[in-house]
Amino acid sequence: MPSPGDIQYTGAQRNKEDIVDFFASYFADKSRPLEALEIASGDGTHVACLAEAFTHVTWTPSEADEAIFDALRYGLSTIEVQRYKKSPKPPKRSSQFVEAFDICPYLILNIHSSHIEEIRSLRLMWILLYYRSRVNDLANVKPMLELKIDTGCDLPNHRNAFDIIFNANMIQIAEFSCKEALFALVAKTLKTGSGSRMFLYGSFADEGGAIAAESNRKFQAFLKALNPNFGLREVGAVVAVAEKNGLVLEADRDMPANNKMLVFKRA
User: Fold this and answer.
1) How does DSSP assign 178-238, residue by residue?
2) What is the mean pLDDT of each run of 10 residues along the chain (267 residues)?
3) Helix (H), strand (E) at residue 245
4) Which of 37, 124, 247, 265 has a CA that sits 20 to 30 A from residue 162's CA?
5) Which helix (H) or strand (E) holds 167?
6) What is the CATH number of domain 4-266?
7) Chain centre distance of CA 142
8) What is the model's pTM?
9) Contact call for residues 64 and 144 (beta carbons, < 8 A)
10) Is the CA virtual torsion 90, 93, 98, 104 positive or negative?
11) Where exactly are the structural domains of the chain?
């Protein structure tokens, strides 16, 4: 069985330090306690490193994937654990699986192969071990919320509750309506104070849908092969949806590995 240190969610692991560095200026005043929501937390890589770096910020992670949420809440079933123990090495990975895992591990459940059930069990085991080893012991991380970003989604008990809302690498791997639902939710849950911000991280298309970076073009082709409605979103299209929900773009920051951090505030 792998140790927590063996778990690697490649995309999140690669960019976590860059994201912490970015947030340093926003969280500089450590005398001011802040409440933060992360939407689509996955295995907790980002929320763990951010909670460790900024102890005056209390984080609430959330996740839509029922399999991930149940794994974190209840643990894996005895059958799944026994299956893993009998085969401690991962199944032979097809080239499609390797490419998918390197590009975006959160898409693994969408990959069809003869090993899909084994891959699913291994993935949930890794998530469970990582989350419990890194996140559960952090005093400034609240229990994970089960939250699916779709039309009509809501957190009625968290109206104007968060100073910070952070979402990474989600809108590319979802239907366009997910983006609209995301900003509608932010409009309900972001505090009304002038210091509140929403941060959106990931790869984006340029105006007109052009994609300059080769790595992003490969990512786009991969996403479109999975689902024609997936793909990198134009910054302008994202900003337009934000403005419909009372949010305006404050900053568009280039990040390493051809990513961006978009920062929104209330109009």
Assistant:
1) HHHHHHHHHHHHB-SSTT-EEEEEE--B-GGG---SHHHHHHHHHHHHH-TT-SPPBHHHH
2) 38 79 93 95 85 95 73 49 42 41 41 50 61 75 87 90 95 88 96 94 91 92 88 95 97 95 97
3) none
4) 124
5) strand 164-168
6) 3.40.50.150
7) 17
8) 0.78
9) no
10) negative
11) 4-266
